[in-house]
Design a protein that fits this description.
By secondary structure, the chain is of the alpha/beta class. The protein has 13 helices and 13 strands. The protein has 2 domains: 141 residues, Response regulator (Rossmann fold), CATH 3.40.50.2300; 137 residues, Rossmann fold, CATH 3.40.50.2300. Helix 6 crosses helix 7 and helix 10 crosses helix 11. About 2% of the residues have low confidence.
Length: 320
């Protein structure tokens, strides 16, 4: 009897030890997260940094974040995410629409979070999108209120009659924004014409054409435009044509004013979503798309002075 009791106690001790080891290993589980960023520019860089900081705050040394940049090439996005899938990462963060599209095509099992994506229904070809993608995809949207941006054009340039919209024809979410903001601008009485470029090679020539025919230009949250603001500014400032931008980075480079979100905060929100998924606190299939917590009216002081644009109260100067 004593031997049985001793054996039982020994077994209990072994089980307890194994449970403690298992619990400890679960608590210290390491996660690998792959980030595919479409291109390097201020907005996307900030989103990636915010994402990394949130994971650091939530998981500390438990998470290893691998960041790879596709240099603006959607084919490279595909190569990057296929590499993440082969590596067996625990989660993929897709920074910008082409990165999200590549990730969605690469896996239907690994959780995918998008950020800097304007409209998920458009990006993923979902008819009658209701706000939750389902499956293995969720994320955050960088969509600012387009109707308020259109009103900004009216408020700052009440005597203008023609507005040109610059965008890249290969970016699905730029096309969505162009469609929506065109409607809002027309309702405000403007004549609106859209001008598309295919890549950085024709940005300057398309900008020159748009400036020659319009009083004001509008640029949505477009990655090619964001990567070519210097080329756009050289043309627009010389033509004395002001630009309203869809986000702060573009405005800082070539615009006069914007109603912008904070991309670092957007990335941080995406990182918090990732932490919940990795820790098992939320199911990605049930997570609705999240949006930036606030938008801010900002202006580019140097460009406003160069173009004699008077900015009313309520705008914040963009600084380095």
């Amino acid at each position: 009897m004593k031997k049985s009791i001793a054996l039982l106690l020994s077994l209990l001790l072994v089980v307890s030890a194994l449970a403690a080891v298992t619990s400890c290993s679960q608590e210290k589980k390491a996660y690998t997260v792959g980030v595919c960023q479409l291109i390097q520019h201020t907005a996307l860089d900030a989103a990636t940094e915010g994402f990394k900081k949130a994971l650091e705050d939530e998981l500390g040394a438990q998470v290893n974040v691998i960041v790879k940049n596709a240099s603006g090439d959607s084919n490279v996005c595909t190569t990057i995410v296929n590499g993440f899938v082969a590596q067996g990462v625990d989660l993929i963060m897709a920074n910008a629409t082409p990165a999200l599209q590549a990730a969605a095509a690469a896996t239907d099992t690994i959780p995918i979070l998008g950020t800097s994506v304007t409209e998920y229904g458009t990006a993923l070809d979902i008819t009658d999108f209701k706000g939750t993608v389902g499956g293995n995809i969720s994320g955050t949207s960088d969509l600012a209120p387009l109707d308020e941006q259109a009103q900004m054009v009216k408020d700052l340039f009440p005597s203008a009659s023609k507005v040109g919209i610059l965008y890249c024809s290969s970016e699905a979410n730029s096309i969505y924004q162009v469609k929506m903001v065109t409607q809002y601008l027309k309702e405000l009485g403007f004549t609106v014409t859209a001008y598309s470029f295919t890549d950085s090679n024709d940005v300057s020539s398309v900008t020159a054409t748009a400036c020659a025919a319009n009083d004001v230009l509008y640029i949505p949250t477009d990655n090619v435009a964001a990567s070519n603001t210097e080329a756009i500014a050289n043309v627009a400032l010389d033509a004395k044509t002001p630009i309203i931008a869809g986000e702060e980075g573009i405005c800082k480079g070539c615009g006069v004013a914007t109603l912008s979100i904070n991309y670092y905060d957007l990335g941080y929100a995406t990182g918090k979503m990732a932490a919940k998924i990795l820790k098992g606190e939320a199911k990605i299939s049930e997570m609705p798309i999240e949006y930036a917590p606030q938008v801010t009216k900002k202006y580019n002081k140097a460009n406003c002075e160069a173009l004699n644009v008077t900015i009313p109260e309520g705008y914040i100067e963009i600084t380095d």
